[in-house]
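In the previous chapter we treated chains in isolation. Here, by contrast, the input contains two separate entities that must be folded as one system, with a combined length of 1302 residues.
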Amino acid sequence: MPPKRKVDSETNPTPQAALNPTAKAAAKPAPRAGRSKTANAPEATTPSAPTGDAMEINGEAQNDAATAQENQQDASAQNGTLPPTIPRKRKIAPPPAGQKSDFSSLLEPFYYGKHLTDPIDTARDKWNLLPAFLKVKGLVKQHIDSFNHFVDIELSKIVEANKEVRSDVDPKFYLKYVGIRVLRPNRLDEEANKGGKSSVTPNECRLRDMTYAAPIVVDIEYKRGNARVMRRDVKIGRMPIMLKSSKCVLAGRSDKEMAVLSECPIDPGGYFIVRGTEKVILVQEQLSKNRVIVESAKGIMQASVTSSTHERKSKTYVIQKKGYMSLRHNILSEEIPIVFVLKAMGVQSDQEIMFLIAGEDAVYQDLFQVNFEACAREGVFTQQQALEYIGYRIRGLKRPLPGQKRNYCLEAMECLSNVVVTHIPIEGMNFRPKALYIAFMARRVLMALHDPSLVDDRDYVGNKRLELAGQMLALLFEDHFKRFNHDFKMSIDKVLKKQNRAQEFDAYNHFSMHGNHITMGLERALATGNWNLKRFKMERAGVTHLLSRLSYISALGMMTRISSQFEKTRKVSGPRALQPSQFGMLCTSDTPEGEACGLVKNLALMTHITTEDEEDPIRKVVYLLGAEDVCTYAGQEMHQDGGFLVFLNGTPIAVTTLPKQFLNGFRKLRRMGRISEFASITINHHYNAVHIATDEGRICRPLIIVENGREKVTARHLKSLRKGTMEFDDFLTRGLVEYVDVNEENDSNIATYESEINQHTTHLEIEPFTILGAVAGLIPYPHHNQSPRNTYQCAMGKQAIGAIAYNQFTRIDTLLYLMVYPQQPMVKTRTIELIKYDKLPAGQNAVVAVMSYSGYDIEDALVLNKASVDRGFGRCQVFKKISTQLKPYANGAMDKIGGLRIDPNDPTKTLDPSHSKIGGDGLAEVGVLLEKDDAYMLKSVPTNLSSVGGSGPVQYRDTPGKYKLPDPAYVDKIIVTENEASITTIKIQTRQTRRPELGDKFSSRHGQKGVVGLISPQVDMPFNDQGITPDIIMNPHGFPSRMTVGKMLELLSGKAGVLDGSLQYGTAFGGSKVEDMTDLLLKHGFSYSGKDYLTSGITGEALQFYVFFGPIYYQKLKHMVQDKMHSRARGPRAILTRQPTEGRSRDGGLRLGEMERDCLIAYGASQLLLERLMISSDAHEVDVCEKCGQMGYRGWCGICKGAGKVNKLTMPYAAKLLVQELGSMNVKVVIGLGDEFPMENE
Amino acid sequence: MSTYNTQTQTSAGGNPGVSVDRSVEYRCGDCDAEVSLKRGEPIRCRSCGHRVLYKQRTNR
C-alpha cells in the first residue's frame, strides 16, 4: 500500500550501497550461468577439494562484482531516461545482488533445522539436492523454460522458415526477415519512444485491466525501387509476456525489489496477464508425435504415426487387414498394398522388400509372403508402375488444366516425399530413409501379429508428451505470422499492379499497416482460450484458464496441472487408471473426483519437462560411437541376431552390434556434458532397438548416479552444496546426478535407499517423497492414510482460506478470501517448506479433543469453542470487487458518474436516502458500511446510444449501482484508473469479516471435512489438569471407517512439538518417528498414547475415559453458510411461466421436484400437491368454453361466439401456456369439463 | 413478475435538490501524492504520471 512503500524507498539507498561490496560470501549471484564450461572447467580437472572450492569462491566474487557494476549501470540508465522533474526515489535504489544475502538466505531451505557445522550423512541429507533442484527447475519452471525457449529460439526458427515475402506481380521485389526479437514489456502508449525504459509492472496491468505484453520487433531487408533497404526494429505486434520469464521485469529480482514492484516474491509466475486477468495455459497431455504406435482392434493390427513438422501435420497408418498389409493415409483414396509403396520408393526387388521387413526370420517371412500376391494381381512390378498406381489414387488434387493429362508418376513422387510420413525429410530424391521407415512400421505390425504382447500401451507415460505454453504460443504465433505475411503480400500486390505510381513505392508503409493483427490474435486466444488454427484444422477450446487465487495452494496446484486430450465421455478405464510408469513423474494422489478423475493429473515435485534439443550433434555422436548408417545396410544384416537399430526420435538412423557399449558410451558423453543433459537413451530388447530421444515435452526427473555399487554424490559434495559453492547444475556437469525420462527410468535399476544398492543398481532416488506433487505434499504422514483420503485432501487443500500472496492487499480480485490469523502447521513436511506453504499458510492449529459431546457432533459435525472463535479462530475476510467502465458510445456521448443531490432543507442529507453513503464524485466513501439497497455508485448512461448523434444536450438515464446482498460490507478500497484504451475504469472493493458460524465447513489435512454443529461456551467444554480446553471437539466415529491414521500421528507429533517447543515433520515415507514423539510426551509428563484425563465442564466430574487430545491443523473451507443461506415466502416470478424464479441470487423459490412429487403422490396427499404445484406457484384463472373446450375471454367464447357455456377454472399458468404453445404448432388441445359432484339420476 | 424490471427514472425531469460536483481528493498509487480531480478530468497523477488513483478514506 502506498504509505508503506514510501518508507521503503526512503530507507533503501544508503544501507544497500554500503552492503554491496562487503556482503559477498553468502551472496547468490542469480544470473550465474551454471553450465558454462569455462567456469567449471578448472574444477573438473582438479578434483582436489580445497583448490576447487577456492577457485569457486574467487569466481563468485568476480561475478558478484560484475553484477553489482551492471546493476549500477542499470540504475543510472533508468535515471537518465526519466525526466528530471519527476522524482522517483525508488528507482535510485541500486537493485543489488547482495540483498539476497542478508536476510533471505537465512530462510533458504538448506538451513531448516540444520547448521553449517552439523555432520553430514549422505543417506539422510541427500534430500538437500531437492531445494537445489527447485531453484533451477521444477514446479512452474517448466512453463517458464518453455516460454523462454519459445521467445529466444523458436520464434527465430518460425521466422526463418517464413523469411521471404515475394510479390506475384513484380518478380524483382522481395522482403526478407533478418532477425526477430521480443523487447521488454511496456505500456501501449510508450511504444513511440523507442529505447526508453518502461516502468510497467505486472500489478499495474492487473489493476488497470491491461495486457502485460512486450513489442515484437523484426529487422527487415527489402527492395525500394532498385535500392536495397534495411530497417531495424520494426514492430509487428505485441507478445503477452509470461510472469517471471526472462523477458519479464520480475526476472531475477530479489525479495526486496519484488516488494517495491508490489509483487509477491513467493508467487510462482508462469502465467500471463491478459486484459487484467491472470491466465494460465494448462499443460496438455498428448500422444507422442513422430513415433510409431502399434495398436490392435477387432482383428486389425495397425502401426500409426502422427507426423508433425512446421509445414504439415498428417497421420499415416500401416494396417494389416484380412491377412494383407497396406498403407493408409488421408490423401490416398484407398489403402495401398505396402509392397507397392516400397516399390514406388525405389525398393524394387521382392527379395529386398522381404528382407527389409521380415529379415531372415522364417515366421515373419511366412506371415508377410502373401503380400506379394498383389503384384501379380495388379500387374505392378516396377517403380514406375507402382508410382502410376499410387498417383491414380491420390485424392483431391487441383484439377489439371483442360487438355493437360495428370502426371500420376510425378504426383505420386510429390505425395510420397511431402505428405506421407512428412517428418522424414527427402534430400536429393533419396527415398531410402523413408522406405526404411515404412518397412520398419510394417515390421512392427508383423511382430505384433506374431506376439500380441508387443502391442504398444497408449497409456504408458513414455509414449506421451506434454505440451506447454511455449509450444501452444508457437503454433499460434506461426499461424498469425503467416497470415500477416499473406496480408502484407496482398496489399503490396495491389499497389505493384498499377503501372504508373505517383511516388516511389515503399513497402514499409504497407508493412506497418497490419500491425494489430498479431497482437489481437495472441491476446484473444489467451483471453478466451480458443486456439483456432485453420492450417492444422485445430479447434481447441479451454486451453487457457483463469488462475484460481482462492489460496496459494490452489494457484500453485493450477500451475502443475495436466489436462488430457482424451474425451471424458469414453467409458474406457485405461487412460484414467494409475500407470506404474508415472512413478516419480506424476503425482499419485492429486486428481479430481468424478468426471475428470484420472484424466486431470498433476506433476510430481521433482519433474521437469524437456524443451527441444538439436538433433544434429546427437546424430554425429551416434556415428562417432561406432554405429553405422542404416542406409548402408541391407535388410538381412539389419535384422540379424545381435544387430540393434539406433533410433533418433523414432527414426532409424544407424545400426550397431554392440548396444550395451554404445549405450554406456552415450551416457558417459552425456554425463560429461558433451551432449544435452536431457537427451535420453534406452535399449528396447523386444525390438532390438536403441532409442535416443531429444524431443520436447518428455517428463523427466533427476536421479543420483550409481556406479560400481556406490553412489556418486558423497558427503563432500553435499557439504559444498550447503556451503553454496556448488549448485544443482554443478552436480549435473560433474556427472553426479542426471536427468532420466520415463523410457530411461524403466530401463534402469533405481534404489530407493542407499542400503538397497547392489551390483545391478544404476541410480539412487534423491528423495522418495517426491513421488507426490506440491498439493499432496501438504499432508502429514500420507503414507499412513488410506489413499482416497489423500486424494480428497488434494481437492480440499485448494478450497482452504488462508494467505494468498504477500501482495494480497494491493490486488483487487473479483473474489478474495483471506484468513485473519493464519498459522503455519505444527506438523510440517519437507514439501511445505520447499513450496513455502509455511509462509503463506491456509489454516490454524486447533487443539482437538477426539470425543463425543452434546450430540451436535454426529455425521462429522464439529463442536467449536466459543472462546476460541471470539479470539479469532477460523475468522476470515471476504473481499469482493465491483467494477465499472465509463464507456464512450458511437455518437460521442459517454457514461458518467456523479450528480449527487443534497436535500435543500437539510444539507447534511442526500435527497434520496439510499444515496447517503455516496461522496462528491458519485462513488461511495471509502470505509463506509454498505447495507442492502444502498447505492455505491451513481452512474448515468446516455439515453441515445445509436451512432447517429442527436442534436442538443445529451439526455441521461440514471442507473445507480446498488448493494444487493443481505449481509452488509465495508467499502475497503476504490481505485479510479484508465485502461489502455483510455476508458475510465472504477473498481470498488468491499470487505466483510466473518467469524465461524453454525454450518461453516472445516477440514483437517486428511480428507476429513465437517461442518460446525455447535459453538459451545468455554465453560461447558471439557478441560485437562492444566485447564486447557479444546478449540474443536471431533467425534471419534470419524476414524474407524476412514482409516486416517495419519491424522492420529499428526495429533501425536503436534502435541509432542507443542510441549517441546519445536515443529515436527510428517514428511511422506519419513517424518518424526512415533517412538520419538512418545518419548517427548513422556518427558513432559503426558501419556505416551496422546490421551489425557479430562474433566467435564458441564458436570464438573471426571470423564470416565481418557481423551485423545492435541493439536491438528484445521483448514477453513470456502463454503460458508452466509453465502448459501436462503429462504423465501413470496418473491419474484419468471416472466414466461409465472413460476417462482430459481436460485439464491434471484431470490428464488425452493423447488418441490419430481421425486418429492412422487412421494406425495404415493402418500396420496392430493391437496398438498395441489397447493405446492399450483396455488403457491403459478395458479391462473382461465375461462374455458364447455362446448368447444377452448379458452375464452371474460366469459365469452370467441369460437362459439357465445357466453352461455363458459366456465371459470383455475389451472397452472404453465399448463395454459403449454396449451397455447401447442396451438401455435397446429395441435389442438381440448379441455373437457365435467361436474365435480355429478347428480345421480342425470 | 413486475418486480423483475428495475425501475429507472430519468434525471431530465429535474427533481429539486442541489447537485454537488466538487473536486475529490485521490492518492496516487505510485508516488503517494495527493491528486484532486474534478469530473471529466483525465485520471493521472500530476507529479509522476501514474494512472492508478485510490480514493481517500472518508472522515465521516
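Chain A touches chain B through 50 residues (CB under 8 Å). The mean pLDDT of chain A is 85. Compare these points with the single-chain example from earlier in the chapter.
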